[in-house]
Structure formats: C-alpha cells, structure tokens
C-alpha cells in the first residue's frame, strides 16, 4: 500500500486549505494528542488521521454535528423541442467537510456530490460536459438505457479542455440513476475525490402511487467512506486486493450528519458511492424500513426490511413515515458492519415538533409488473479471481480488460444466464452497463424479495455463485461489465460485450 498523491498536481491554483485558524489549530491539536494515545483501536493504519482515533471531546469528526447537505438541483440551460439541455464543468474544487478546512476535490460544477438532475421519462436530456481537469475524463450514466456512444465507455473520453454532449433518451421506467467518471484505470481515484452525482428519473406511475417527488421530501443520500490527512485533504491509499476502506462515513459530503425531518412521509434514496465498502443499514430503534425501489426502479411490491445491505454502486429507495415518531425523537441510521464509531454512524433523523397533518399514502400491494424476459439462449460462467503473477490484478474468467477484445456478442433482444462464480474472499459488486438484469439464483440461499426486480449491480459475496439474467435491450453496440469495487474494476476486472443486431 503506497499513499497516493493528492489530486491536485503542481502548478494548480489550489488555495491554502486552512481558512479558519482557530478550528485548524484545534484539529491539529487533536491529531497531535491522539498520536500519543496508546493501545485501543490503533490497528488499521499508522498514518496520523481522522475518525479511527477520535477524541472524546467534540472534533470535526463528531457525528450528527452538521446538517445534511442537499446537492443543488441543476436547471437546464435551454430547452429545444422538448429536450432539456444541461451543462456542467468537470473541475477542481474546494469543499468544507471538516469545519475550518477546505478539502480539495474533483467535482461536477466543482462540488461534491455533484448537482442532481431531475429528469422525466419520455423527455430526453442532453448534458454538455466540459472537462476542465488536466487529464481525460468522461461520464457514465449508471443504470441508464443509453446508446453506446453516450454510455461513458472507458475508452471514450473527453480530453482536457473539450466538451461532449451526452444524450440521454430517458426512455425507461423511473429509477435512481447516477453519473460518475469512467475513464479507464482511474475511477478509484476520481470517484473518491468527488466525481459523483444523482440523476433522478421520474414517471407517471410513481406519481400515481403517491411517492414523494418534491425535492424537500425526496432526498438522495450519497454514502461513501473516506479518510483525511491532517490538512483536511482526503487521504487515499491504494489496496487492489481489499479495495479502499475509509474510517469516516460521509453522507452527501458531510461527516455522519443530522437531518431535520417533519412528521410526514420521506423518500430516502440511498446510493452507495463508496470505492469498495458495503454497508448493512439499520434504524437505531429497530424500526423497519419500507423499500420501494432498487437499481432499476420500483419493486413489484414494497418490502419491509429490518436491515438493508447495500453494496458499492447499488441504489435502494426507502419510504420512512416520521409520523410514527414523537416530536424531538432522534433516530440514528447505523451501519451495523462498521468497525468503529466513524464507520457505524451514518445519519441521524431529528424529528421536528409540529407537523403530522399532511395527507399522503404509503403504497401497499402491487406497484408494477416486471416484464417477462425471453427464454435464455446461452449460459455463461464467469469466474472472479485474483491474479498475482505480475502485480495484484483481478480477473473475470481469467481475463483482464482489453479494449481491443470483445468478450461476448449477444443478439439484441435476447437474454442469457450469466453465472458469477466467486471463489475469492472479497465481495464483487458486478455491474453491467446500458442494460438491466434479474437475479435468478444465489448459492448462498434465497433471493431477497427486494432483489427480485430489475438490477444493474449485484453484490457477489465471498464464496458465492450468483446467476443473473441480463436482457440485451434496447441498443446495439459496445458496453462493458465490471466489478464496481473500483480498485478491482480499474485493475482490471472488466470485460466487454457488443450487442449485435
Ligand atoms: Cu471486485
């Protein structure tokens, strides 16, 4: 493991991070004091840093001390013949995550997470992305039915100083899509340093069901684990085998924030935007959560869950009815897999006094009918394994990524059975671009009811075999499928398919 360079190279015009001398001093004192602590909890890292060794007193890592930031919703710059045109700059930025410190990031519009796009089924969008970074970038709309040329294929990049108009047909059911950098070999770096944003596609059906779509009550929650250097910058160290693990959970770019909620129904859209960490989320008081959607949109019916497992790149939409809580209640969303306070505390809901009079309905029974897949016309087995012959590299079917090679050529409109076979001791969240699949079998047991709808990413557990059935629609062309543990996908756990007519 070697520490990575900070994102900004020499010659950039990065400002001094420490705007606030007092807070900065406090943090440095905290680090200095902590570095002399002995014993407890000092096991995972030797670099002096952040949450793993926090003080009892308030520090920048004290959970629930900041309000949940909500990324701004981007407005179109124009509308041409029913197509909304958006524009974004991919650029460096500074953001205040730890009070008094500015953390250098890469960001869409220079912010982390990037702005949210709210799109509507049947109404296409064009997103003009201008690369103001000093290296190649591109944008993948994760979960989108998008023509190959607009998918953000790892080899289709925007050169520094150039722009690309991504055209999104939005001809698919409502779903929580998200966009992120996909230039080959550096996604672990660029996503970690901030190139992530939400793309919320709505349709008539979800409105008929009464699901909240007002941005005040329909909240994207981008969850990612990070670590910090003393100067407040993100700390990253590459670990190709395990994938990166941070010691501090950020939600929408704030350390374990609090969210003031009214006594009414909220739609919480969870995105695991972590490099490689999976979470098992649970409400602190043991209340159940109602899941209504996953990667590919609505479930057939709502599913009550006591815990929610979410792997990198997956989305889970929950409805939480805060009328059931007393005013003044504080309910903590915890990651019960967390190994420390910094990775256990996710978010606290602070129920405000008053409210409770709003009318709304919680969907019960059938929300949608999942389309029937054509019978599979091929069966493939993809072994997921670690190769160590020339440095640590991950493989799919003993192959690493080769952009010149097409690994599978399915016909448009057909489906196949794909068996992800994972003899390794790591979780591999396997993702297919441009298309959706169903999970049809898990060797570890039954398929959870919340995983029976359309998916674009599935967490294949250590030792597990998961069979999925992708449907090769709606476009022909070249797409990739890969592990979304970003260090795995970068090196080089990715293959290529070409859907042919
Ligand atoms: Cu993997």
Automatic annotation (TrEMBL):
- The record lists the membrane-crossing segments as none
Q: Which UniProt keywords apply?
A: Metal-binding, Oxidoreductase
**Family matches, as InterPro entries:** Cu-oxidase-like_N, Cu-oxidase_C, Cu-oxidase_fam, Cu_oxidase_Cu_BS, Cupredoxin
- Span of domain Plastocyanin-like: 94-202, 393-500
Taxonomic superkingdom: Bacteria
Q: Does the keyword Zinc apply?
A: no
The record's annotation in Gene3D superfamilies points to: Cupredoxins - blue copper proteins (2.60.40.420)
Q: Which family does it belong to?
A: Belongs to the multicopper oxidase family.
Q: What PANTHER family does the database record attribute to this sequence?
A: BILIRUBIN OXIDASE (PTHR48267:SF1), CUPREDOXIN SUPERFAMILY PROTEIN (PTHR48267)
Question: Mind telling me what this protein is named?
Answer: Multicopper oxidase domain-containing protein
């Amino acid at each position: 493991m070697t520490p990575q360079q900070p994102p900004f190279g020499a010659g950039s015009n990065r400002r001094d991070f420490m705007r606030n001398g007092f807070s900065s001093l406090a943090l440095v004192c905290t680090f200095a004091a902590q570095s002399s602590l002995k014993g407890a909890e000092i096991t995972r890292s030797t670099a002096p840093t952040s949450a793993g060794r926090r003080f009892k007193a308030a520090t920048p890592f004290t959970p629930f001390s900041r309000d949940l930031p909500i990324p701004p919703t981007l407005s179109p710059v124009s509308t041409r013949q029913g197509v909304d045109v958006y524009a974004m700059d991919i650029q460096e930025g500074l953001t205040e995550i730890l009070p008094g410190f500015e953390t250098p990031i890469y960001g869409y519009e220079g912010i982390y997470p990037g702005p949210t796009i709210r799109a509507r089924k049947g109404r296409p969008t064009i997103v003009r992305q201008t690369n103001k970074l000093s290296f190649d970038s591109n944008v993948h709309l994760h979960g989108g039915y998008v023509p190959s040329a607009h998918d953000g294929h790892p080899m289709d990049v925007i050169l520094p100083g150039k722009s690309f108009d991504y055209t999104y047909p939005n001809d698919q059911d409502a779903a929580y899509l998200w966009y992120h950098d996909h230039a080959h070999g550096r996604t672990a770096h660029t996503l970690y340093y901030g190139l992530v944003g939400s793309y919320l596609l709505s349709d008539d059906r979800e409105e008929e069901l009464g699901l909240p779509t007002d941005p005040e009550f329909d909240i994207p929650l981008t969850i990612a684990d990070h670590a910090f250097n003393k100067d407040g910058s993100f700390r990253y160290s590459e670990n190709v085998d395990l994938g990166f693990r941070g010691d501090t959970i950020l939600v929408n770019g704030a350390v374990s924030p609090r969210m003031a909620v009214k006594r009414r129904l909220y739609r919480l859209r969870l995105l695991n935007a972590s490099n490689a960490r999976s979470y098992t989320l649970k409400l602190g008081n043991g209340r159940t959560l109602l899941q209504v959607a996953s990667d590919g949109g609505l479930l057939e019916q709502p599913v009550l869950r006591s815990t929610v497992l979410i792997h990198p790149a997956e989305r889970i939409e929950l409805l939480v009815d805060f009328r059931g809580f007393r005013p003044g209640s504080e309910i903590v969303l915890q990651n019960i897999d967390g190994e420390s306070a910094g990775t256990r505390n996710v978010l606290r809901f602070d129920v405000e006094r008053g409210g409770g009079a709003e009318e709304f309905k919680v969907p019960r029974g059938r929300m949608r009918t999942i389309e029937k897949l054509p019978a599979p016309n091929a069966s493939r087995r993809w072994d997921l394994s670690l190769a160590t012959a020339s440095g640590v590299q991950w493989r799919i079917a003993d192959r690493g990524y080769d952009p010149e090679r097409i690994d599978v050529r399915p016909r448009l409109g057909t489906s196949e059975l794909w068996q992800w076979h994972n003899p390794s001791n790591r979780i591999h969240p396997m993702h297919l671009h441009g298309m959706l699949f169903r999970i049809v079998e898990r060797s570890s047991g039954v398929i959870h009811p919340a995983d029976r709808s359309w998916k674009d990413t599935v967490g294949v557990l250590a030792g597990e075999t998961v069979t999925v059935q992708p449907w090769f629609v709606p476009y022909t062309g070249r797409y990739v499928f890969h592990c979304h543990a970003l260090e795995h996908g970068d090196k080089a756990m990715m293959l290529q398919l070409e859907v042919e007519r």
